[in-house]
Amino acid sequence: MNDTVEVAAGHRCVHGEGPVWSDEEQKLYWTDIESRALWRLDPGRGAAVSWNMPQKVCSLAFRERGGLLIAFEKRLSFYDLGALAEQRIVEVETDLPTTRLNDGRCDRQGRFVVGGFDAEEKGLSAAYRLDVDLSLHRLFGGLSSANSTCFSVDGRTMYYADSPQAVIWAFDYDAGSGEPRNRRVFCDFRDQPGIPDGSVIDAEGCLWNAQWNGSRVVRYAPDGSVDRVIEVPCRNPTSLAFGGSTLDTLFITTSRLTLTEEEARRQPVAGTLLAVHPGVRGLPETRFRG
Q: Which domains does the chain have, with CATH numbers?
């Protein structure tokens, strides 16, 4: 176990988010949402490259058939980075000018669950599920900033957060239908320094959460109790992914979006990609099966 947090990629994104590890490539992908950029790190070479994208890349997943599934601002698309070619699947919330898509992840069955962000925090956005037949289904509404999308090891529990509400929920998740039911509070953040941003489940079934405005990453036991805290040298960690050849590296995306110039100067790692070796391993990311 080593709680020393190090810089894995030094480029300062405006708003780094959505890290996903590719087992096949042994590389990490993440997004700078505000800069409309997609990044990829090869840890073995210490080299990072980026692509300019047609819209903000809000979250992404890998496809079993190759390529990416990307949640852009207002649409879900397949994307081929080699050819820089987009295949649009479906548009989302085009009638709501203040919303865009946000956090997303595949469930254990290979469907993509994604939620939205409402810039005015009026709860106008919703959570959706993209099935393998490419049909889109609305799961529930009332969201201002969907985050923490992840699934238990057995896939029977879905974790989800609407960040301004300062709780992470747990749902019973029907593996057959992909329907979440029986929402309850998994963790209440009212006595914690930050609010929930992105989360990931480790191989032991614990949930790791990046606490926005909290300068820390927290591991929660399956009963929702705080198991461990790792301090992060910037105010706003945003999301997490386990990677490396044995999935024992925890990558942490960060943001400098809301910092003043003085705050950004005093937090030189804000916006960079960080990494820590917490002594536990993650799980391979499920690929989209459509």
A: 2-277 (2.120.10.30)
Distance CA 147, CA 103 (A): 5
Nearest to 239 by CA among 269, 204, 274: 274
What is the value of pTM for the model shown?
A: 0.98
Model pLDDT, residue 2 = 74
Cβ atoms of residues 243 and 271 within 8 Å: no
Contact (Cβ atoms closer than 8 angstroms) between residue 207 and residue 168: yes
User: For the CA atoms of the chain, what is the radius of gyration?
Assistant: 17
DSSP 8-state symbol, 165: G
Q: What is the pLDDT of residues 72-125, one digit of tens each?
A: 999 999 999 999 999 999 999 999 999 999 999 999 999 999 999 999 999 999
User: Smallest Cα–Cα separation from 188: which of 210, 169, 175?
Assistant: 169
DSSP assignments along 186-232, one per residue? EEE-TTSSSEEEEEEEBTTSPEEEEEETTTEEEEE-TTS-EEEEEE-
CB of 154 within 8 A of CB of 136? no
Which tokens belong to 58?
Answer: 């809000």
Rounded Cα–Cα distance for residues 242 and 199 (Å)? 11
